[in-house]
Amino acid sequence: MKYSVFILLIIFLSACQNEGLDESYQNLNDENSDNENIFLDLELPSNFPEPTYEIENNRPTQAGFELGKKLFYDGKLSSTGVISCGFCHIQDFAFTHHTHVVSHGVNGALGTRNAPSLQNMIFMEDFNWDGSVSHLDAQPIVPITTEFEMNESITNVLTKLQNDEEYVQLFNAAFENDTIDTQNMLRAISQFVMMMVSADSKYDKVVRNEGSHFNEMEEAGKAVFDQKCAGCHSGSLFTDQSYRNNGLPIDPQYDDEGRMRVTGEEADKYKFKVPSLRNIAVTFPYMHDGRYQTLRDVLDHYDSGVVQTQNLDSVFIQENGQLGIPLTEIEKDEIIAYLNTLTDDNFLLDDRFSEF
Ligand code: HEC
Ligand code: HEC
Fold first, then answer.
1. Residue 176 CA to chain centroid, in angstroms?
2. pLDDT bracket for residue 241 (50, 70, 90)
3. What is the C-alpha to C-alpha distance for residues 9 and 6, in angstroms, rounded to an integer?
4. N or C, where is the chain less crowded by C-beta within 10 Å?
């Protein structure tokens, strides 16, 4: 099923790309001259790589952002009227589904994966634990149409929006062609998600020389991390965006094949996207199925819980045939202190993104 969604997305995306993203960009410019729809300032942090999202094709405007925000927090996008994007992606926890091992959607239906954090999405090449979606604009189609998430059809969502006077006005303000259609809806949601850049943690202030310094513990943690973890959780995004098997015991309940669901390749079985570790202190539970409650549990896994399964990473997780990443108890404390410097309260408490 996942596979067919993926193919549909490709078809959809190539269609909307041809339909003239350039044209809409032009329209936005025109619109700017005769009404109040101002472009928002999307600041790109100096310690980050270039964005992968082509911002020029869908530059966030005040009206587009406000519309995207309303859509993000609106249960109308689901069949029962209560499950919004924000239901599973809660800002205080870096837009994860706090306390939920795997996400749950309409009528309490259980999914199979843990909701990832939403931050710095414009720097990502693919989305989801298996990379099943490769364009941010297409991502909302998955939760909206997935049975155990929002369980709704795009056509129904559009009809609901078209019958709502407030949405008619918001779409008018946000898009020159005034139309409530799939493309405008997705672009508006992207304009909201696009602004979620988390780059103001203590870590950032240290690396950008903004007057902060690591304490001894954090400094020591950084050294261990750089040596033992940064092979995969690399750079300022804390992910190299590759797919790897980090040695989790296979959970027979889900038997999630990870990246293989997308590529069909045996060589990708049990590989998952290396997640970003930004705001990691608040995004528990951890891993694609939310199996670990604490960072300590995660470190115990790397130290002594790694098991040999198909496609276990051969570069960083097993040295000289020795499974796992050996860590002393002190090193674990140090790594946790370092990871805590990735918490960005200005992002977690930023009013622009909050529901109320
Ligand atoms: C029922 C809970 C639920 C709802 C509702 C939901 N999501 Fe998600 N979201 C998830 C889960 C779980 C994943 C990971 C799915 C996977 O890996 O297969 C995810 C993944 C994502 C990602 C990719 C993140 C990454 O790091 O790759 C984005 C972006 C996203 N969701 C945005 C949205 C938007 C926008 C909406 C509303 C249209 C939404 N989500 C609704 C649970 C939910
Ligand atoms: C071989 C690459 C690799 C190395 C080395 C590695 N990780 Fe990971 N890490 C991953 C992958 C892949 C996942 C996701 C696995 C899954 O959910 O199936 C992950 C998940 C995590 C998570 C959970 C993130 C979340 O959002 O749920 C944390 C925390 C973490 N790693 C920290 C570390 C630390 C600390 C180290 C060093 C001791 C480390 N990792 C070394 C690849 C790696």
1. 29
2. very high
3. 5
4. C
Q: Report pLDDT for 103.
A: 79
Answer whether residue 80 shows pLDDT above 90: yes
Spacing, Cα 116 to ligand 1 middle (Å): 7
Go through the chain and tell me how many residues it has. Answer: 356
Per-residue b or e along 80-105, where b marks 16 or more CB atoms closer than 10 Å to that residue's CB: eeebbbbbbbbbebbbbbbebbbbbb
Q: What is the mean pLDDT of residues 224-240?
A: 97
Say if residue 33's pLDDT is above 50.
no
Which residue carries 């304490």 as its tokens? Answer: 215
CA dihedral 185, 188, 193, 197 (to 10 degrees): 160
Q: Is the shortest distance between the CB of 272 and ligand 2 below 6 Å?
A: yes
The DSSP annotation for 166-178 comes to HHHHHHHHH-TT-
Q: Does the beta carbon of 237 lie inside 6 Å of ligand 1?
A: no
Q: Find the helix packing angle between 62-72 and 165-174, rounded to 10°.
A: 140
Residues 115 and 88: beta-carbon distance below 8 Å: yes
Full set of structural domains in the chain with CATH: 2-197 (1.10.760.10), 202-345 (1.10.760.10)
pLDDT band at residue 36 using 50, 70 and 90 as cut-offs? low
Instruction: Centre a 10 Å sphere on the Cβ of residue 299 and count the other Cβ atoms it contains.
Output: 22
Query: Could you count the other beta carbons within 10 Å of the beta carbon of residue 115?
Result: 24
Per-residue pLDDT reduced to its tens digit, 248-298: 999 988 889 999 999 999 999 999 999 999 999 999 999 999 999 999 999
Indicate whether residue 306 lines ligand 2 (CB < 6 A): no
